[in-house]
Amino acid sequence: MAGFNQLFVPGPTNVPESVRQAMNMPMEDMRAPDYPTFTRGLFTDLMKVFRNETGRAFIFPSSGTGAWESAITNTLSPGDRVLMSRFGQFSHLWVDMAERFGLDVDVVDVEWGTGVPVEIYAERLAADKEHRIKAVFVTHNETATGVTSDVGAVRAALNAAKHPALLFVDGVSSVGSIDFRQEEWGVDCAVSGSQKGFMLPPGLGFLSVSQKALNAAKTAKFSRCYFSFEDQIRANDTGYFPYTPAVQLLRGLRAALDLIQEEGLDNIFERHHRLATGVRKAVDAWGLRVCAKEAKWNSDTVSAIVVPEGIDSADIVRRAYNGYQTSLGVGLNKVAGKVFRIGHLGWVNEVMMCGAISAAEMSLRDCGVKVQPGSGVGAALEHYRLSAQPAVAKAA
Amino acid sequence: MAGFNQLFVPGPTNVPESVRQAMNMPMEDMRAPDYPTFTRGLFTDLMKVFRNETGRAFIFPSSGTGAWESAITNTLSPGDRVLMSRFGQFSHLWVDMAERFGLDVDVVDVEWGTGVPVEIYAERLAADKEHRIKAVFVTHNETATGVTSDVGAVRAALNAAKHPALLFVDGVSSVGSIDFRQEEWGVDCAVSGSQKGFMLPPGLGFLSVSQKALNAAKTAKFSRCYFSFEDQIRANDTGYFPYTPAVQLLRGLRAALDLIQEEGLDNIFERHHRLATGVRKAVDAWGLRVCAKEAKWNSDTVSAIVVPEGIDSADIVRRAYNGYQTSLGVGLNKVAGKVFRIGHLGWVNEVMMCGAISAAEMSLRDCGVKVQPGSGVGAALEHYRLSAQPAVAKAA
Amino acid sequence: MAGFNQLFVPGPTNVPESVRQAMNMPMEDMRAPDYPTFTRGLFTDLMKVFRNETGRAFIFPSSGTGAWESAITNTLSPGDRVLMSRFGQFSHLWVDMAERFGLDVDVVDVEWGTGVPVEIYAERLAADKEHRIKAVFVTHNETATGVTSDVGAVRAALNAAKHPALLFVDGVSSVGSIDFRQEEWGVDCAVSGSQKGFMLPPGLGFLSVSQKALNAAKTAKFSRCYFSFEDQIRANDTGYFPYTPAVQLLRGLRAALDLIQEEGLDNIFERHHRLATGVRKAVDAWGLRVCAKEAKWNSDTVSAIVVPEGIDSADIVRRAYNGYQTSLGVGLNKVAGKVFRIGHLGWVNEVMMCGAISAAEMSLRDCGVKVQPGSGVGAALEHYRLSAQPAVAKAA
Amino acid sequence: MAGFNQLFVPGPTNVPESVRQAMNMPMEDMRAPDYPTFTRGLFTDLMKVFRNETGRAFIFPSSGTGAWESAITNTLSPGDRVLMSRFGQFSHLWVDMAERFGLDVDVVDVEWGTGVPVEIYAERLAADKEHRIKAVFVTHNETATGVTSDVGAVRAALNAAKHPALLFVDGVSSVGSIDFRQEEWGVDCAVSGSQKGFMLPPGLGFLSVSQKALNAAKTAKFSRCYFSFEDQIRANDTGYFPYTPAVQLLRGLRAALDLIQEEGLDNIFERHHRLATGVRKAVDAWGLRVCAKEAKWNSDTVSAIVVPEGIDSADIVRRAYNGYQTSLGVGLNKVAGKVFRIGHLGWVNEVMMCGAISAAEMSLRDCGVKVQPGSGVGAALEHYRLSAQPAVAKAA
């Protein structure tokens, strides 16, 4: 088929040209004398994206799942009690991992379309006078349902209860795209991956940790090697890695971090909010709704759109792919068949989003959903132009 | 700015990924023993795109302008009378070149928005009993106004008059995108360039010629060296070039020709017609009109859209570029300020066109043109989905 | 500095142009409907490189170290007794991992420069009537010393003892470069990585396993998630992955597997032997020797060259890098300062090796080692030309 | 075949990685509002490479041959008398072009292996009291024979004769590689191309001109359009081009000019001299000689090496290509079969040259030339290391 494929899954996201150019490289020796000069800047600038000021960051050749595993196995011990919540495929998988590693998981199940139940967390923490809970887990952005949770509120609950538990955050589809403040929120283990807000191909797992997490690693009893903090620290401190790093992706990471610094984190967050708002206006114009139950849960990185009864959302995704060369996200697990997803994170802009909405409109109509042609994209583009900087608003 | 730039000028056009990959190469020796194996396939397959069966094709490191010059200087002599018509910036420039080379140019000026005046050509040819006219020039697709002329009708006029003049066609923005039949239409010199339907970066000029043109070259008296047929033929016949060819673009050309063969010329023409129709439906929905005066002149590779009185079309193009990272075509020469252009040729598809139309809608409204948000893109996308293969038409 | 950097470390190795082109790609959705068509071919062809006919292969976003960990955690249980040997940095690190995971490691330490002590292994296996040894580990090619061990002989020892232990092989710097026969040798877990014989950037860990290993996974008691066989199998069987795979490297892997199939494994092994022999002839001509104690240990993928007393091999490596833009391998651990290494695996040919040897000669002389200028490269190139196919041997 | 191809023809030359990365780009609009910001820097920095301070430079989508044609057709008129000399294939072709354009060419034929006969030029100029000679042509570096001529001496001859003729220099294989001083030497038209010292793929012709040449263009009577100064000036002055420029190569040119500025022209000249000297020492060690008759003619960008009687140099080139994936230059025209050429210009360094010499040694021996294996590369590498910066000279 002709023309460019259009990628609007919530990761992998589109790779900027400068990142792509940087990865178009011959191989290099990761033990070269001048390699540390390169790697040190990476770690420093990576921490800035997490707004981690006093801890350190690890870069694993892995997916974000590997970084989850690193967080658990380096700071906890078998049988440790942890507080988690489940409201989507990714929070579900994290619970599953914790259970498989033998943690004593206190899972709070809440409705899909909502997020971390801060009040319940607050109660449990307040009740846990003996501090048996060793860690509290927050899926910052549940990619399956397009729900963003309030990390700061969980920190407040911990503080209110004067609870010493570690705070773990899955920021795979949030860090670098929406507001995340590791230092301010006292996040001990913040997990992310290369293929979302970092605008890289998948293949790097990031784990940004606090000094408290580093201290916890000294007594944590899980076996670990590949994902060991200690090995990384020993090598990273010399500018190298304990085993061969993914050198091509590291060169891409450099270019991506440069782009992030150039645009500025706050501008990036604002751009994501603006683009996401346009998508939500399109959904409204279609007469449909997003999976997030209330506006406060709305994610600025991905929207899960609920299809009408009797329609299989998988058909819409398949139609967009086969008919219009456009990748949308399928519904996963409990919302399989019920939602399709539009990723609006990373290297995206207004016109790209109008393309995504257009593809969705064609596919919805092809599958029998009677949205008005042009209604969604019209609502979105009018929002985009009215909110553009510098503002221009001639037509009425 | 974030996200991909969107390119909808009528050339350079978007480069397919496989072409881009093919050009991501180390340098090579254009005198290598096995280079002819490579070049021979290029010439053969290039001729197929022109539907030239009995002549030959030349590949110059140049723009299409160079191929124009090659056509003139190799087949004509100073003072030769030629019949040309002018109805846009590119037909104008071709006339200018002919005059500067000292040809005796009979220019027929017709209204911009119309094309080659076949009836007038027929009269002049019928009247030219002494066959003083040595060549008849046709701008197949006037890129400045979005007008396609009828090459076959000019051939018919030549035949009706039993006139031996050479037939020159500027196919820069037509060949490989819309129906072109060199053999059937008896085109003697067909000019094109790499950066339009061939989906390559600019840098190659193509000239596809008939045996009649090759014969004419034997007596043509212009001085020529860089663009000489004779030098090319001598070298090309051995699989090489008379001077260093643009080897990187040649590798890209191989990939582009493969894509063209894979999709099939007739399918490519159909795709261009379908995408162009969608754009024209958008223009209708906006309440605007294209520059082409009648439907028969409509170009399937570029639409020039007339803006309302009091609006400067250059503002719209500038707004799209600065505000929405989208390159549209400006109005040139007589239609400067009056039209903006959307290129819909080469490596394009439905969603890309919806993006282009969305960018145009935002820019039009920003500049005070009261098009209904979503009206154009809605009209286009509904056309695209209803004409998609295989057809799917559920929503009413 | 000008000109291309020269890479002759034993991994990462040079990436072929077609692999580089394949990785120059926009991102794609790893959940696309047609993705399984792509992934299935990868698994099938990857197994062929291991000559694994009846098991299956796993592809992890990781380094080879991750694949080591996967082998251990999926097929063994804490406290299991394993038989290992140590004779270089990489066999050392594997022992270290096994110990950290709580295996009961019977380590046989042998002189660096020799390899797996098959006779001792045979004795231990014969003595282990109760089959307490659950797995036997073989570092096929010790990258630190340039020593290749005899995997087939270890299989013979297992068979002679009628011992049911699993056979683990570290083939990171052997598979795809030198003779490896998983099926014939009954290797249960064969580990490799993308950045050596597979000619890719680092970032993929490969684990090719037998049915026996898959069965062992059913009762193995280590916690595991990221590197779990079970999760991979469930997803891979549908053509997908349990978490986001490194899609860019997977496209590169496709291109690399195509190159491997095109050249043919046996031809690849023969090429590596020929190139390695040339390097060893150069070492002889210099009056130096390789670290491998006997010819039978010589590795065809990397040569560790012993420098004269009083010379620090790290100076030579540094000089080659800073003075001649050439990356050679440093000595690691016990042979730090004593050897430097030339990698001759992957996408290499005669002229590249002559360049490597030239760089080594300049650096050796700069550091005070009195090798005769041109002696090594002369010996190597004469070997290369005399062993070239088709043979040409005019000059005497 | 495996491993990288090795390119040592005297153009196209090896493309640096940063240039390759810069050309790995999506297409762009050459009429974009901010395009002039980009192009202006190109012209400014291009002139610096020619050391042209007061004239201007033109960039054509063409080969260097096109720039030759531009120089002639814009500054001369049919029938003008010009003084040229012929001593190789490229000076021959330039004479041929001048004759075909109807210039009255006074050709001085001198032995191949020598260069511009300054004394004869001086005589002719002194004798031409009526100033009938309108231009004097100098092939600065004759690529076919590896001969560099003395441009400054020709300027001195012109000055001594107080002769107003224009000075034309073919600097295709010299500018950016060896000392060239347009302003100081009063060169009026200096021709070059992208694929030599500029380290780009072929496809751009450069013409750097003096104010005197620009004045001459006002009265020059050749027809011209594609290569017209006037059209270029009018467009370039606005930051654009008169027809579609080769935008991808222009982005590459930016990266190449950055590299040139970073290394510094004088350092580049010194590097070329050092690398060329090594090649000549190799030729001496082989017992062969270069085509240049005296040391003063030696070119620092290409060496043409004379093979012994009874040997066909084309066999050596073919053997290097087919047997060792190495491209050497063939002998052209009068020296066909008699010389082979090693290009040592552009993005080259010591180890690359050792590879080239190694390939030549293998090929020479394969073809029956009894050079001592390692003799040439040994002589070269010893020169390289002794002349390296900073100098290191331990081994005796």
Automatic annotation (TrEMBL), chains A, B, C, D:
Q: Where is the Aminotransferase class V domain?
A: 55-317
Protein's pathway? One-carbon metabolism; formaldehyde assimilation via serine pathway
The UniProt entry, under PROSITE patterns, shows: AA_TRANSFER_CLASS_5
CDD domains, alphabetically?
AGAT_like
Q: Which GO terms describe its biological process?
A: glycine biosynthetic process, by transamination of glyoxylate
Annotated substrate binding lies at: 341
Q: Which reaction does it catalyse?
A: glyoxylate + L-serine = 3-hydroxypyruvate + glycine
Q: Give the cofactors, semicolon-separated.
A: pyridoxal 5'-phosphate
What UniProt keywords are attached to this protein's entry?
Aminotransferase, Plasmid, Pyridoxal phosphate, Transferase
One of the entry's Gene Ontology molecular-function terms is:
L-serine-glyoxylate transaminase activity
Q: Gene3D superfamilies in the record, alphabetically?
A: Aspartate Aminotransferase, domain 1, Type I PLP-dependent aspartate aminotransferase-like (Major domain)
Instruction: Write down which residues bear the modification named N6-(pyridoxal phosphate)lysine.
Output: 196
EC identifiers of the protein = 2.6.1.45
Task: List the PANTHER family hit by this protein, alphabetically.
Answer: ALANINE--GLYOXYLATE AMINOTRANSFERASE 1 (PTHR21152:SF24), AMINOTRANSFERASE CLASS V (PTHR21152)
Q: Which family does it belong to?
A: Belongs to the class-V pyridoxal-phosphate-dependent aminotransferase family.
> What protein name is recorded for this chain?
Serine--glyoxylate aminotransferase
What organism is listed for this UniProt entry?
Answer: Aminobacter aminovorans (Chelatobacter heintzii)
Q: What is the lineage of its organism?
A: Bacteria, Pseudomonadati, Pseudomonadota, Alphaproteobacteria, Hyphomicrobiales
